[in-house]
Design goal:
Blueprint: E1 12-19, E2 28-33, E3 36-43, E4 46-51, E5 66-67, E6 70-72, E7 79-81, E8 87-89, E9 98-99, E10 101-104, E11 107-113
Antiparallel strand pairs: 1-11, 2-3, 3-4, 4-9, 5-6, 6-7, 7-8, 10-11
């Protein structure tokens, strides 16, 4: 999978998701962008976006508990770093996509590679 957060911002296209007032501290927002299931988090004033699909068994990931910077898959307990998408514990061994998030004109935007 890709850690899009490491790409040069000039190679990305940002899509406006919502206003910052629509995502309160500690909340998450589920969305679909170009057939990608994504979950967007607001944690300690920062924003993170990752795939909402566990790489272990394609189950839903976004409903899992957060522990520090990790989201725990509710099905089998795999953990992923929400900052990078890195799989950090078994049974997952494949990373998930992480997307850069920026705030522009009080709106939350997520970056994707330009097509």
């Amino acid at each position: 999978m890709f850690d899009y957060t490491k790409y040069d911002p000039d190679t990305l296209e940002y899509i406006e998701i919502c206003s910052i007032v629509e995502l309160s501290e500690g909340e998450r927002l589920f969305l679909e962008v170009d057939d990608k299931q994504i979950v967007l988090f607001r944690i300690n004033g920062d924003y993170f976006a990752v795939d909402d699909i566990c790489s272990h068994d394609d189950g839903p990931l976004g409903e899992g508990d957060l522990e520090g910077d990790n989201i725990i898959c509710p099905r089998h307990g795999a953990r992923f770093d929400i900052r990078t998408g890195k799989a950090v514990s078994l049974p997952a061994v494949i990373d998930i996509c992480a997307y850069p998030v920026r705030i522009r004109n009080n709106n939350i935007e997520i970056g994707f590679l330009k097509t």
